[in-house]
User: What shape does this take?
Amino acid sequence: MSESTIQLLLAALGVGGTLSAAILTQALQKSAERERRAADDLRRWHADRFRAAKDLLYKIKETERILWGACAALPSEDEYAQIRAAGHTTLFAVREADVPRPSDDLTVFDAVHLAIVREALEQVHRLLEEGEHLTAEISILCEGATPDAASTMFEAAWNAAGALETTRGTRDQAFNAVLRMNAPIAAFQASVREELGVVVPPRSNG
Assistant: This one.
């Protein structure tokens, strides 16, 4: 084999090695870029899920707080009967003229109590309208038990609001409807923690 042939072979090997190295480097870079994008997507989805769950939970907890406060202003059983006898099926249909004027007797469902309950229900309806959008968002973003838990929690809040709005129930039934929000709220929190991998440290007894 001549010297020129050897030099040609060595040159070819050098070019081939350089080309192979370039191809390998490019492949590694593409693989690293895919992994980076996948990690970015995972972080973004995690952040979106956390944000939607947090916002929904806040609105439902705020709904619960407002409803608890409004329960104390609801009519007694006799007052409910009088309101129904006047043909009103919801407290929104009751006019101020249909109830006693404001007085110092806190046991009487008067115009002030009516205004308290109405304002609370209006606030709750706004919260639940926003909560309905978040529940739909969670059904898209989340998986497993979380979407069902979100729907169950939202439904419990809606039922509690309805229990305060209707004149067909009693004050105790309204209280119980708000109380029944606790279990769905806890179930939703547990489901979100599991999906997002949130570990809550046990409470210390000390």
Observations:
- Residues 38-42 have pLDDT under 50 and may be disordered.
- Helices lie at 3-71, 77-85, 111-141, 146-165, 171-179, 182-196.
- The two ends are 87 Å apart (CA to CA).
